[in-house]
Design goal:
Blueprint: H1 11-25, E1 27-32, H2 37-40, E2 45-47, H3 49-56, E3 63-67, H4 70-79, E4 84-87, H5 102-111, E5 116-120, H6 125-128, E6 133-135, H7 140-145, E7 153-156, H8 159-169, E8 174-175, H9 181-184, H10 188-197, E9 202-205, H11 211-216, E10 219-220, H12 223-232, E11 235-239, H13 242-251, E12 256-259, H14 274-283, H15 292-308
Helix pairs in contact: 1-14, 3-4, 4-15
The structure holds 1,3-dihydroxyacetonephosphate.
Length: about 300
């Protein structure tokens, strides 16, 4: 490809380059719900973690570009070992995923050798490889409820989803103390203040919020389940990363939507802009590599989750 002066290109130029490159390279583009709307416009599919993982197993494209964060691209790579999987930004990652190491999980497993290990997908491949089943925000409650009551369960890495799942299933889970800073910062007081300010609005929150905030909400669910809720409801407080609020405002300009807090910004999700995404597609620089042994072990735990659904 001839050299391109990326900074001189308009959004329209970038959309048309993306369209041509997608065909030329036989590339399928996935974008997470938190991505900028401009980035989502070049995607073949926009969704939550579970939907992206499922769709990734169906495409026959030669290459997949993931607009989001590294852990999501790793999941796609593990499910598509023969395809080239490329990231939209070289260091968009998940701080929650990296708070604890596989060694920390191995130590926990040693302490509870008979426990099932449920690993939330916002985790590196090496942590998934140490687990028996993965889950996402869309199915965490169901995955845990499928495990026999007489089994102990280690749930990693997010302690807030863990607390919500434990509460919904009325059982104890062994957990790390990791959390997502975007959701964890929201206090019960803030949630209550928003409900007071918008008394006829529904409050929907992501389960990465603290348990007391989740209990205050009308619905606790994944980002795509939030989109489904907004389709049928006109007044909603959106309790997750701000990108979802912007996507919903774009899709439903006539609805009355407010973000739970403008502070809910994931810096890593915001690293990808339209220019960066199209450039990543053109240059294929940020290829995802997962070692064979980790890939095989992590695949078992991902397949178990996908089969289960
Ligand atoms: P979803 O799977 O609900 O889209 O959540 C992903 C995520 O990163 C939440 O912070």
């Amino acid at each position: 490809m001839e050299s391109i002066d990326w900074n001189s290109l308009s959004n329209d130029d970038l959309y048309s380059i993306a369209e041509n490159l997608k065909k030329e390279k036989n590339c399928f583009i996935l974008a997470h719900n938190y991505q900028f709307v401009e980035v989502q416009k070049i995607a073949d599919y926009v969704g939550d973690s579970l939907q992206m993982a499922k769709v990734a197993t169906k495409t026959d494209a030669k290459m997949i570009l993931l607009c989001g964060i590294k852990i999501m691209a790793e999941t796609v790579k593990i499910l598509n070992p023969d395809k080239k999987v490329v990231m939209s930004h070289f260091d968009a990652d998940c701080p929650l995923a990296n708070m604890k190491s596989p060694d920390d999980l191995r130590a926990l497993r040693k302490k509870y050798p008979d426990a099932e290990v449920v690993c939330y997908v916002n985790s590196p491949a090496a942590l998934k490889a140490e687990s028996t089943i993965t889950c996402t925000s869309a199915n965490a409650v169901k995955v845990v409820s499928s495990i026999s009551k007489d089994k102990q369960i280690i749930f990693v890495p997010d302690q807030n989803i863990g607390a919500w799942v434990a509460y919904k299933n009325n059982r104890e889970l062994i957990m790390f103390d990791s959390y997502c800073y975007v959701h964890e910062q929201i206090t019960l007081k803030e949630a209550r203040m928003m409900k007071e300010e918008y008394p006829d609005y529904s409050l929907i929150v992501h389960p990465e919020c603290a348990l007391d905030v989740c209990k205050e909400a009308d619905l606790v669910c994944s980002t795509s389940q939030m989109i489904d809720f907004v389709k049928d409801n006109d007044r909603v407080i959106i309790g997750t990363e701000i990108g979802l609020y912007y996507q919903l405002k774009y899709r439903y300009p006539e609805k009355h939507l407010v973000p739970l807090s403008p502070k809910m910004v994931c810096d890593d999700m915001k690293k990808t802009d339209l220019r960066g995404a199209v450039r990543a597609l053109a240059e294929e620089k940020y290829e995802i590599i997962v070692t064979e042994s980790i890939k095989q072990k992590a695949r078992k735990s991902l397949d178990r989750m996908l089969f289960f659904i």
